Protein backbone atom coordinates (compact mmCIF):
# COMPACT_ATOMS: atom_id res chain seq x y z
CA UNK A 1 0.00 0.00 0.00
CA UNK A 2 1.50 3.40 -0.98
CA UNK A 3 2.49 5.53 2.01
CA UNK A 4 -0.03 8.28 1.27
CA UNK A 5 -2.91 5.81 0.97
CA UNK A 6 -1.86 4.07 4.18
CA UNK A 7 -1.70 7.39 6.04
CA UNK A 8 -5.17 8.34 4.82
CA UNK A 9 -6.51 5.02 6.06
CA UNK A 10 -4.97 5.64 9.48
CA UNK A 11 -6.51 9.09 9.74
CA UNK A 12 -10.03 7.85 9.02
CA UNK A 13 -11.60 6.58 12.25
CA UNK A 14 -15.33 6.37 11.62
CA UNK A 15 -16.71 2.82 11.66
CA UNK A 16 -20.09 3.79 10.22
CA UNK A 17 -19.81 4.68 6.57
CA UNK A 18 -21.46 7.99 5.81
CA UNK A 19 -22.36 8.72 9.44
CA UNK A 20 -24.25 12.02 9.39
CA UNK A 21 -23.24 12.99 12.92
CA UNK A 22 -19.71 11.63 13.19
CA UNK A 23 -18.17 13.57 10.31
CA UNK A 24 -19.08 17.12 11.46
CA UNK A 25 -18.21 16.06 15.02
CA UNK A 26 -14.72 15.14 13.85
CA UNK A 27 -14.52 18.56 12.21
CA UNK A 28 -15.59 20.29 15.42
CA UNK A 29 -12.81 18.50 17.26
CA UNK A 30 -10.44 19.86 14.64
CA UNK A 31 -11.75 23.38 15.24
CA UNK A 32 -11.38 22.92 19.00
CA UNK A 33 -7.76 21.75 18.87
CA UNK A 34 -6.79 24.49 16.42
CA UNK A 35 -8.22 27.03 18.87
CA UNK A 36 -6.02 25.54 21.60
CA UNK A 37 -3.01 25.69 19.26
CA UNK A 38 -3.67 29.40 18.71
CA UNK A 39 -3.55 30.05 22.46
CA UNK A 40 -0.05 28.64 22.75
CA UNK A 41 1.11 30.16 19.49
CA UNK A 42 -0.06 33.61 20.60
CA UNK A 43 1.90 33.19 23.83
CA UNK A 44 5.16 31.90 22.36
CA UNK A 45 5.38 34.26 19.36
CA UNK A 46 5.10 37.32 21.62
CA UNK A 47 8.88 37.98 21.86
CA UNK A 48 8.96 38.53 18.07
CA UNK A 49 6.07 41.04 18.10
CA UNK A 50 6.36 44.69 19.22
CA UNK A 51 4.19 45.37 22.24
CA UNK A 52 1.38 47.83 21.72
CA UNK A 53 1.23 47.36 17.96
CA UNK A 54 -1.59 45.95 15.88
CA UNK A 55 -0.16 42.42 15.85
CA UNK A 56 0.13 42.45 19.63
CA UNK A 57 -3.50 43.48 19.98
CA UNK A 58 -4.61 40.80 17.53
CA UNK A 59 -2.64 38.18 19.47
CA UNK A 60 -4.42 39.20 22.67
CA UNK A 61 -7.75 38.62 20.94
CA UNK A 62 -6.59 35.30 19.50
CA UNK A 63 -5.38 34.15 22.91
CA UNK A 64 -8.71 35.02 24.55
CA UNK A 65 -10.82 33.38 21.82
CA UNK A 66 -8.67 30.26 21.66
CA UNK A 67 -9.23 29.51 25.32
CA UNK A 68 -12.78 28.28 24.63
CA UNK A 69 -11.44 25.43 22.48
CA UNK A 70 -11.31 23.29 25.61
CA UNK A 71 -14.95 24.19 26.38
CA UNK A 72 -15.97 22.88 22.97
CA UNK A 73 -14.12 19.64 23.71
CA UNK A 74 -16.07 19.32 26.96
CA UNK A 75 -19.40 19.72 25.12
CA UNK A 76 -18.48 16.98 22.64
CA UNK A 77 -17.26 14.70 25.42
CA UNK A 78 -20.45 15.22 27.40
CA UNK A 79 -22.50 14.35 24.33
CA UNK A 80 -20.56 11.20 23.46
CA UNK A 81 -20.21 9.72 26.93
CA UNK A 82 -23.78 10.48 27.98
CA UNK A 83 -25.15 9.12 24.69
CA UNK A 84 -23.15 5.92 25.10
CA UNK A 85 -24.30 5.33 28.67
CA UNK A 86 -27.92 6.15 27.98
CA UNK A 87 -28.27 4.11 24.82
CA UNK A 88 -25.92 1.20 25.58
CA UNK A 89 -25.70 0.45 29.32
CA UNK A 90 -22.66 -1.53 30.33
CA UNK A 91 -21.04 -2.72 33.59
CA UNK A 92 -19.15 0.07 35.32
CA UNK A 93 -15.90 -1.93 35.28
CA UNK A 94 -16.11 -2.37 31.51
CA UNK A 95 -16.96 1.29 31.03
CA UNK A 96 -14.12 2.48 33.28
CA UNK A 97 -11.58 0.15 31.66
CA UNK A 98 -12.46 1.61 28.28
CA UNK A 99 -12.08 5.17 29.61
CA UNK A 100 -8.65 4.34 31.08
CA UNK A 101 -7.62 2.70 27.81
CA UNK A 102 -8.75 5.76 25.90
CA UNK A 103 -6.81 8.30 27.96
CA UNK A 104 -3.79 6.71 29.56
CA UNK A 105 -1.53 5.21 26.85
CA UNK A 106 -1.08 8.52 25.06
CA UNK A 107 -0.97 10.50 28.29
CA UNK A 108 1.68 8.22 29.81
CA UNK A 109 3.87 8.49 26.71
CA UNK A 110 3.77 12.29 26.81
CA UNK A 111 4.12 12.35 30.60
CA UNK A 112 7.26 10.20 30.40
CA UNK A 113 8.67 12.58 27.78
CA UNK A 114 7.96 15.64 29.93
CA UNK A 115 9.35 13.96 33.04
CA UNK A 116 12.51 12.89 31.23
CA UNK A 117 13.08 16.35 29.76
CA UNK A 118 12.49 18.00 33.12
CA UNK A 119 15.11 15.79 34.78
CA UNK A 120 17.54 16.00 31.86
CA UNK A 121 17.33 19.79 31.70
CA UNK A 122 17.65 19.94 35.49
CA UNK A 123 14.62 22.06 36.23
CA UNK A 124 14.05 21.35 39.92
CA UNK A 125 11.55 24.21 40.22
CA UNK A 126 9.01 21.89 38.61
CA UNK A 127 9.26 19.52 41.61
CA UNK A 128 9.10 19.95 45.38
CA UNK A 129 12.52 19.84 47.01
CA UNK A 130 11.80 16.90 49.33
CA UNK A 131 12.00 13.46 47.61
CA UNK A 132 8.77 12.27 49.24
CA UNK A 133 6.94 15.41 48.14
CA UNK A 134 8.37 15.08 44.63
CA UNK A 135 7.19 11.47 44.44
CA UNK A 136 3.74 12.56 45.62
CA UNK A 137 3.67 15.26 42.97
CA UNK A 138 4.43 12.72 40.25
CA UNK A 139 1.72 10.42 41.62
CA UNK A 140 -0.80 13.27 41.67
CA UNK A 141 -0.07 13.97 38.02
CA UNK A 142 -0.37 10.30 37.10
CA UNK A 143 -3.78 10.18 38.80
CA UNK A 144 -4.88 13.27 36.81
CA UNK A 145 -5.55 15.32 39.93
CA UNK A 146 -4.21 18.71 38.72
CA UNK A 147 -7.18 20.68 37.47
CA UNK A 148 -10.07 19.72 39.71
CA UNK A 149 -7.62 20.13 42.61
CA UNK A 150 -5.26 23.14 42.94
CA UNK A 151 -2.11 21.31 41.78
CA UNK A 152 0.23 22.51 39.05
CA UNK A 153 0.24 20.05 36.16
CA UNK A 154 3.56 18.84 34.76
CA UNK A 155 1.90 18.87 31.33
CA UNK A 156 0.21 22.26 31.32
CA UNK A 157 -2.81 21.19 29.25
CA UNK A 158 -3.43 18.07 31.36
CA UNK A 159 -5.65 20.03 33.77
CA UNK A 160 -8.53 19.32 31.39
CA UNK A 161 -7.96 15.56 31.68
CA UNK A 162 -8.73 15.94 35.37
CA UNK A 163 -12.09 17.46 34.44
CA UNK A 164 -12.68 14.71 31.90
CA UNK A 165 -11.98 11.86 34.28
CA UNK A 166 -14.07 13.40 37.04
CA UNK A 167 -16.93 13.56 34.54
CA UNK A 168 -16.30 9.94 33.54
CA UNK A 169 -16.69 8.87 37.17
CA UNK A 170 -19.68 11.08 37.90
CA UNK A 171 -21.96 10.58 34.90
CA UNK A 172 -22.62 6.82 35.39
CA UNK A 173 -23.74 7.62 38.93
CA UNK A 174 -26.07 10.34 37.68
CA UNK A 175 -27.54 8.08 35.01
CA UNK A 176 -27.89 5.12 37.37
CA UNK A 177 -29.05 6.77 40.59
CA UNK A 178 -31.33 9.13 38.71
CA UNK A 179 -32.78 6.22 36.72
CA UNK A 180 -32.47 8.42 33.64
CA UNK A 181 -32.95 5.57 31.18
CA UNK A 182 -36.44 4.99 32.59
CA UNK A 183 -37.41 8.67 32.46
CA UNK A 184 -39.06 10.48 29.59
CA UNK A 185 -37.02 12.70 27.32
CA UNK A 186 -38.89 15.75 28.60
CA UNK A 187 -38.07 14.82 32.21
CA UNK A 188 -34.38 14.43 31.38
CA UNK A 189 -34.30 17.79 29.59
CA UNK A 190 -35.87 19.46 32.61
CA UNK A 191 -33.41 17.71 34.91
CA UNK A 192 -30.41 18.82 32.84
CA UNK A 193 -31.63 22.41 32.66
CA UNK A 194 -32.14 22.45 36.42
CA UNK A 195 -28.71 20.90 36.98
CA UNK A 196 -27.15 23.55 34.72
CA UNK A 197 -28.81 26.35 36.68
CA UNK A 198 -27.82 24.87 40.04
CA UNK A 199 -24.20 24.31 39.00
CA UNK A 200 -23.81 27.80 37.51
CA UNK A 201 -25.36 29.47 40.54
CA UNK A 202 -23.29 27.34 42.90
CA UNK A 203 -19.99 28.01 41.18
CA UNK A 204 -20.94 31.65 40.65
CA UNK A 205 -21.55 32.04 44.38
CA UNK A 206 -18.74 30.02 45.91
CA UNK A 207 -16.30 29.56 43.03
CA UNK A 208 -14.90 26.29 41.70
CA UNK A 209 -14.36 24.48 38.39
CA UNK A 210 -17.25 26.21 36.64
CA UNK A 211 -16.14 25.08 33.17
CA UNK A 212 -17.30 21.57 34.02
CA UNK A 213 -20.78 22.92 33.27
CA UNK A 214 -19.95 22.46 29.59
CA UNK A 215 -20.34 18.69 29.95
CA UNK A 216 -24.00 19.33 30.79
CA UNK A 217 -24.34 21.18 27.49
CA UNK A 218 -23.24 18.01 25.70
CA UNK A 219 -25.71 15.90 27.66
CA UNK A 220 -28.51 18.33 26.83
CA UNK A 221 -27.43 18.27 23.19
CA UNK A 222 -28.09 14.52 23.08
CA UNK A 223 -31.62 14.97 24.41
CA UNK A 224 -32.46 17.84 22.07
CA UNK A 225 -31.24 15.93 19.03
CA UNK A 226 -33.53 13.03 19.95
CA UNK A 227 -36.43 15.35 19.21
CA UNK A 228 -35.56 15.45 15.50
CA UNK A 229 -35.16 18.45 13.25
CA UNK A 230 -37.74 20.43 15.18
CA UNK A 231 -35.22 21.02 17.94
CA UNK A 232 -32.20 21.69 15.71
CA UNK A 233 -31.01 25.00 14.26
CA UNK A 234 -30.24 26.24 10.78
CA UNK A 235 -26.64 26.51 9.66
CA UNK A 236 -26.70 30.31 9.80
CA UNK A 237 -28.20 30.35 13.30
CA UNK A 238 -25.73 27.73 14.47
CA UNK A 239 -22.81 29.67 13.04
CA UNK A 240 -23.97 32.83 14.80
CA UNK A 241 -24.32 30.89 18.05
CA UNK A 242 -20.79 29.50 17.66
CA UNK A 243 -19.43 32.97 16.99
CA UNK A 244 -21.14 34.14 20.18
CA UNK A 245 -19.38 31.41 22.10
CA UNK A 246 -16.05 32.53 20.62
CA UNK A 247 -16.69 36.22 21.29
CA UNK A 248 -17.69 35.91 24.95
CA UNK A 249 -14.08 35.72 26.27
CA UNK A 250 -13.37 39.12 24.71
CA UNK A 251 -15.48 40.76 27.42
CA UNK A 252 -13.74 41.09 30.78
CA UNK A 253 -15.66 39.10 33.39
CA UNK A 254 -13.68 38.96 36.64
CA UNK A 255 -14.85 37.15 39.73
CA UNK A 256 -16.78 33.89 40.21
CA UNK A 257 -20.22 35.36 39.42
CA UNK A 258 -19.25 36.85 36.08
CA UNK A 259 -17.18 33.78 35.24
CA UNK A 260 -20.35 31.70 35.69
CA UNK A 261 -22.17 34.11 33.37
CA UNK A 262 -19.35 33.73 30.86
CA UNK A 263 -19.56 29.94 30.95
CA UNK A 264 -23.34 30.10 30.63
CA UNK A 265 -23.06 32.19 27.45
CA UNK A 266 -20.40 29.90 25.97
CA UNK A 267 -22.66 26.96 26.92
CA UNK A 268 -25.53 28.44 24.89
CA UNK A 269 -23.31 29.37 21.97
CA UNK A 270 -21.70 25.97 21.56
CA UNK A 271 -24.98 24.15 22.20
CA UNK A 272 -26.47 26.04 19.25
CA UNK A 273 -23.40 25.37 17.10
CA UNK A 274 -23.61 21.63 17.74
CA UNK A 275 -27.38 21.52 17.27
CA UNK A 276 -27.00 23.03 13.82
CA UNK A 277 -24.01 20.84 12.92
CA UNK A 278 -25.56 17.52 13.99
CA UNK A 279 -29.25 18.26 13.47
CA UNK A 280 -28.81 19.35 9.83
CA UNK A 281 -26.15 17.03 8.38
CA UNK A 282 -26.96 18.25 4.88
CA UNK A 283 -26.60 21.90 5.87
CA UNK A 284 -23.75 24.18 4.86
CA UNK A 285 -22.22 24.22 8.34
CA UNK A 286 -22.12 20.43 8.64
CA UNK A 287 -20.67 20.10 5.16
CA UNK A 288 -17.91 22.59 5.97
CA UNK A 289 -17.08 20.77 9.20
CA UNK A 290 -16.90 17.50 7.26
CA UNK A 291 -14.01 18.87 5.19
CA UNK A 292 -11.48 16.03 5.18
CA UNK A 293 -8.34 17.88 6.41
CA UNK A 294 -10.32 19.41 9.28
CA UNK A 295 -11.72 15.99 10.24
CA UNK A 296 -8.25 14.47 10.18
CA UNK A 297 -7.08 17.23 12.49
CA UNK A 298 -9.95 16.29 14.78
CA UNK A 299 -9.09 12.61 14.65
CA UNK A 300 -5.54 13.20 15.87
CA UNK A 301 -6.61 15.98 18.25
CA UNK A 302 -5.95 14.13 21.52
CA UNK A 303 -2.34 13.40 20.58
CA UNK A 304 -2.03 16.89 19.14
CA UNK A 305 -3.52 18.49 22.24
CA UNK A 306 -1.03 16.82 24.58
CA UNK A 307 2.14 17.28 22.52
CA UNK A 308 1.80 20.40 20.38
CA UNK A 309 2.82 22.75 23.20
CA UNK A 310 6.19 21.05 23.59
CA UNK A 311 6.66 20.97 19.81
CA UNK A 312 5.95 24.71 19.67
CA UNK A 313 8.50 25.38 22.40
CA UNK A 314 11.15 23.49 20.43
CA UNK A 315 10.22 25.41 17.27
CA UNK A 316 10.53 28.81 18.92
CA UNK A 317 13.70 27.84 20.78
CA UNK A 318 15.37 27.01 17.46
CA UNK A 319 13.84 30.08 15.83
CA UNK A 320 15.41 32.33 18.47
CA UNK A 321 18.84 31.29 17.19
CA UNK A 322 17.98 31.86 13.54
CA UNK A 323 15.72 34.90 13.89
CA UNK A 324 16.41 36.79 17.13
CA UNK A 325 14.19 39.77 16.23
CA UNK A 326 10.85 40.21 14.49
CA UNK A 327 8.29 42.89 13.80
CA UNK A 328 4.63 43.42 12.95
CA UNK A 329 4.97 40.82 10.19
CA UNK A 330 6.17 38.04 12.52
CA UNK A 331 2.86 36.78 13.94
CA UNK A 332 1.11 36.07 10.60
CA UNK A 333 4.30 34.98 8.82
CA UNK A 334 5.30 32.41 11.45
CA UNK A 335 1.81 30.93 11.97
CA UNK A 336 1.87 28.32 9.20
CA UNK A 337 5.51 27.23 9.76
CA UNK A 338 4.82 26.85 13.48
CA UNK A 339 1.73 24.74 12.84
CA UNK A 340 3.54 22.58 10.30
CA UNK A 341 6.37 22.05 12.79
CA UNK A 342 3.91 20.60 15.32
CA UNK A 343 2.43 18.04 12.94
CA UNK A 344 5.22 15.40 12.62
CA UNK A 345 5.69 14.65 16.36
CA UNK A 346 1.95 14.77 17.07
CA UNK A 347 1.16 12.57 14.10
CA UNK A 348 3.87 10.12 15.17
CA UNK A 349 2.35 9.97 18.67
CA UNK A 350 -1.06 9.27 17.16
CA UNK A 351 0.18 6.56 14.79
CA UNK A 352 2.52 4.82 17.24
CA UNK A 353 0.60 5.09 20.53
CA UNK A 354 -2.93 6.46 20.39
CA UNK A 355 -4.35 4.65 17.40
CA UNK A 356 -2.99 1.13 18.06
CA UNK A 357 -3.37 1.22 21.85
CA UNK A 358 -6.49 3.33 22.43
CA UNK A 359 -8.57 3.20 19.27
CA UNK A 360 -8.15 -0.34 17.92
CA UNK A 361 -10.93 -2.83 18.62
CA UNK A 362 -10.60 -6.55 18.89
CA UNK A 363 -11.32 -6.92 15.18
CA UNK A 364 -8.54 -4.57 14.23
CA UNK A 365 -10.91 -1.83 13.11
CA UNK A 366 -11.09 1.55 14.81
CA UNK A 367 -13.19 1.55 17.94
CA UNK A 368 -16.23 3.77 18.13
CA UNK A 369 -14.91 7.29 18.05
CA UNK A 370 -14.67 9.26 21.26
CA UNK A 371 -13.66 12.82 21.87
CA UNK A 372 -10.00 13.50 21.20
CA UNK A 373 -9.11 15.87 24.15
CA UNK A 374 -9.94 13.80 26.03
CA UNK A 375 -10.44 17.61 24.93
TrEMBL record:
Keywords: Acyltransferase, Membrane, Transferase, Transmembrane, Transmembrane helix
Parts of the chain that traverse the membrane: 30-49, 61-82, 102-121, 165-182, 189-206, 235-253, 265-290, 302-323, 329-353
Keyword Membrane among record annotations: yes
Molecular function GO terms recorded: acyltransferase activity
A UniProt-annotated Pfam family: Acyl_transf_3
Domain Acyltransferase: from-to ranges: 26-349
EC annotation from Swiss-Prot or TrEMBL: 2.3.-.-
Enzyme superclass (EC): transferase
PANTHER family in UniProt: ACETYLTRANSFERASE, BLR2367 PROTEIN
Protein name in UniProt: Acyltransferase family protein
Taxon lineage: Bacteria, Pseudomonadati, Pseudomonadota, Betaproteobacteria, Burkholderiales
Amino acid sequence: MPAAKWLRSQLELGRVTGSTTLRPMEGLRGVAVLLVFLVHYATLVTPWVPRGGLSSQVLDVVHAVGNVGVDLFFVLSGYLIYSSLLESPKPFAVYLRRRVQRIYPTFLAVFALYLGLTLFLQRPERFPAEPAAAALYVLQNLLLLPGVFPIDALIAVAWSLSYEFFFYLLVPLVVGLGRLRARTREWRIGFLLLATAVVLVGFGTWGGPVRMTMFLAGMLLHELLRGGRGTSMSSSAGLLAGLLGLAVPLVAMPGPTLQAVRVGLVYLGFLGLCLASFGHPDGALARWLAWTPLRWMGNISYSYYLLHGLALQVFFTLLARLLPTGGEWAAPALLLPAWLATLPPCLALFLCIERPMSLASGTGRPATATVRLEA
